[in-house]
Design a protein that fits this description.
It is built from 20 helices and twelve strands. The two termini are 26 Å apart. The protein has an eight-stranded parallel sheet. Strands 5-4-7-8 form a four-stranded antiparallel sheet, with no helix packed on it. Helix 5 crosses helix 8. It is of the alpha/beta class.
Length: 511
C-alpha cells in the first residue's frame, strides 16, 4: 500500500518524527534506530509512518521554519552509517556521544558538523568506495536546481554569524552577480561541505525509504504551506513572495484566534505573490511537491485552507488578531498539479476555522481531511470531530504534534469534559490513551494514526509542540524501551480487530 492506495483502504500507522527516536548521539537519526523502528511497525501490522517536515531547522528549531523546502536536515545524519560507509573511524564514535534525553540542538549541531567535516576529509583523501564518488556525482547533478542556491545561502549565512539574509551586505542580499561569484570563490570549502552533507542525508533517507517499502510501510511526509522568511527559497526567488524593497515581508502568515490561541497565531512567514506564480504555471510550487513526493509516499498538506483563503497579518503587528482573509489560488492550482503528476496523494490538514469553500475545494480533488479525537470532547468541541460523523475519506488522529498527549490532555480537561469522554468511550479513564487509540481505529475513517506518545501512555512531559510558544518545543525523545515491540503491546491485535492491516474486509483475529 504505497502512495494514494494507502488513503483508499483501511490502514493504520504511527506519528513519530525521526528526531524523537532514541540513540546515543543527542538526537534521533536515520541510522539503525530508524530501521529497527520500521521493523517494529511492520511487526505490529502498521502500514504507515508519519513524519514532520524533514528540512534543515531554523528559528526555534522548528521543522516548520526551515532554511530550505528542498534540502534535508543534516542533524539526522547517522554516525553509525558513516562508519559502515568507511567515512568515519569507528574508534572515534565514542567522542560523539551525548546524554540521552531531550534534544539539545546547539550541542547536536556542533557534533554533526564535526562528523561531516571528518567524513568529507576522508572522502577527499580518496579512501572510499568508488560507488560513493559515483553516487555523489549523480546526486549533485539531480539536485542542481536547488542545491547550488542552498549551498551558497548556507555558506554566506555561516560566514556572516547566521544573520537573516536581509541583513547581509546589500549586494549579496540582492543577489548581484559579481558579489555572488566572489562569494562562491571565497566560500568554496563551505559550499562543498554543505553539498556533501546533503548527499549524506539523502543517501541515508533513500535507505530508510527502501526499508519501509520492503516492510509494506508508506511514509507520510508533511509539507508546510509557507516557507521561512530566512530561507534559501525566499532569497533565491524573491519575486515569488510579497516583500518590500529590502526583502522584508509586507504581511506575514498566521491564523485568526481559535481553540489553539485567543489572539491567533502570527507565524511570520512571507506570503506568496500568487498572481506571479500563476504566470509560471505554479512551477516553483509544483517542483516543491514533486520533490517532497520523491522522498515520501503521501504528503500531509499543512494549512490546506490557505489555498482557498489565507490570513494575512500586517508585518508590524505583534499578534494575529489584526489580520484579514485574502483569496488563495483555489482549484486552479490543484488543476495544475493534476496536470503535472496526476491525482496527488495528499492529506488536507483542515483543522481550525473551516468554511464551505475549503470543504468544497478538498472534496473536489478527493483529498481526505483530518479529524482529531481530542477536539470531539474538549477544546474545539465541533460536531465534525465526533467520531460518529466521520466518513471514509478521513484520517482519524488521537492527537497531532500540536496537541498535548492524550494522557496530558485528559489530565488537564475539566471534570465535565472528562465525564463526557469516559461516557462516550465507555471507559473508566485508567487507560484513556489506549481507549482513544481503539476509538480512532474503530472509526470508518480509511486511515487512523496515533503519536507514539499516545500508544505508550505518556503525559504532558512528552508533548512535542505547544503552538504560540517559542521555546521548549521539538525536543522530546523516546526512550529505547518505548519503541520496542513489547512497548506497543496489543497495537497489532487492535489493528487486526478493526481491519486496518491493509485489507478491505474485516476479519476476526486469530483465536
Amino acid at each position: 500500500m504505497i502512495g494514494k492506495d494507502l488513503l483508499e483502504r483501511r490502514a493504520a500507522g504511527v506519528l513519530l518524527h525521526p528526531t524523537s527516536l532514541p540513540g546515543p548521539y543527542g538526537i534521533g537519526d536515520l541510522g539503525p534506530a530508524a530501521h529497527r523502528w520500521l521493523d517494529t511497525l511492520g511487526d505490529h501490522n502498521q502500514r504507515c509512518w508519519q513524519l514532520l517536515p524533514l528540512g534543515p531547522t531554523g528559528y526555534g528549531n522548528s521543522p516548520y521554519q526551515s532554511f530550505s523546502t528542498f534540502a534535508g536536515n543534516p542533524l539526522l545524519i547517522s554516525p553509525e552509517l558513516l562508519v559502515e560507509e568507511g567515512l568515519f573511524p569507528a574508534e572515534e564514535l565514542g567522542s560523539l556521544r551525548l546524554l540521552t534525553g531531550p534534544v539539545r540542538y546547539e550541542k547536536v549541531a556542533g557534533l554533526k558538523r564535526r562528523l561531516v567535516e571528518r567524513a568529507l576529509q576522508t572522502f577527499r583523501s580518496g579512501q572510499v568506495r568508488r560507488s560513493i564518488r559515483t553516487d555523489l556525482e549523480e546526486f549533485l547533478e539531480d539536485a542542481g536546481s536547488w542545491l547550488e542556491d542552498f549551498a551558497l545561502f548556507m555558506a554566506i549565512k555561516s560566514a556572516g554569524n547566521n544573520r537573516w539574509w536581509v541583513e547581509w551586505e546589500p549586494d549579496l542580499a540582492m543577489r548581484q552577480p559579481d558579489a555572488l561569484s566572489l562569494a562562491r570563490r571565497e566560500l568554496a570549502d563551505e559550499i562543498e561541505l554543505v553539498k556533501f552533507e546533503q548527499f549524506l542525508f539523502f543517501r541515508e533517507w533513500a535507505s530508510v525509504r527502501d526499508h519501509a517499502h520492503r516492510r509494506g510501510i508508506s511514509l507520510i511526509g508533511d509539507l508546510p504551506i509557507f516557507v521561512a522568511a530566512d530561507s534559501a527559497d525566499v532569497w533565491s526567488h524573491p519575486e515569488l513572495f510579497d516583500l518590500d524593497r529590502d526583502g522584508r515581508p509586507r504581511s506575514v502568515a498566521g491564523v485568526p484566534p481559535d481553540y489553539f490561541s485567543a489572539t491567533g497565531q502570527r507565524w511570520g512567514n512571507p506570503l506568496y505573490r500568487w498572481p506571479v506564480m500563476k504566470t509560471t504555471g505554479y512551477r516553483w510550487w509544483l517542483d516543491r511537491i514533486s520533490a517532497a513526493l520523491e522522498r515520501t509516499d503521501v504528503l500531509r498538506l499543512d494549512h490546506f485552507r490557505g489555498f482557498a483563503a489565507y490570513w494575512a497579518v500586517p508585518s508590524d503587528s505583534t499578534d494575529a488578531s489584526t489580520g484579514r482573509w485574502v483569496e488563495g489560488p483555489g482549484a486552479e492550482f490543484f488543476d495544475a498539479l493534476d496536470a503535472r503528476i496526476g491525482p496527488a496523494p495528499l492529506i488536507a490538514e483542515d483543522l481550525g476555522w473551516i468554511t464551505e469553500d475549503v470543504d468544497a475545494l478538498r472534496l473536489q480533488f478527493g483529498f481526505p481531511g483530518m479529524r482529531v479525537l481530542q477536539f470531539a470532547f474538549a477544546g474545539a468541541v465541533e460536531p465534525r470531530f465526533l467520531p460518529y460523523r466521520y466518513d471514509r475519506e478521513t484520517v482519524a488522529y488521537t492527537g497531532t504534534h500540536d496537541n498535548d498527549t492524550t494522557q496530558g490532555w485528559y489530565d488537564n480537561a475539566t471534570p465535565d469534559e472528562q465525564r463526557f469522554t469516559r461516557r462516550y468511550l465507555d471507559s473508566d479513564g485508567t487507560r484513556i490513551h489506549r481507549d482513544m487509540v481503539r476509538l480512532a481505529w474503530s472509526t470508518v475513517a480509511n486511515l487512523a494514526v496515533a503519536p507514539l506518545q499516545d500508544l505508550v501512555g505518556l503525559g504532558s512531559e512528552a508533548r512535542m509542540n505547544t503552538p504560540g510558544t517559542a521555546e521548549g518545543n521539538w525536543e522530546w525523545r523516546a526512550l529505547e524501551s518505548q519503541v520496542t515491540p513489547e512497548a506497543l503491546g496489543e497495537l497489532g491485535e487492535i489493528t487486526r480487530t478493526f481491519g486496518r492491516d491493509g485489507e478491505d474486509v474485516l476479519q476476526a483475529p486469530d483465536s
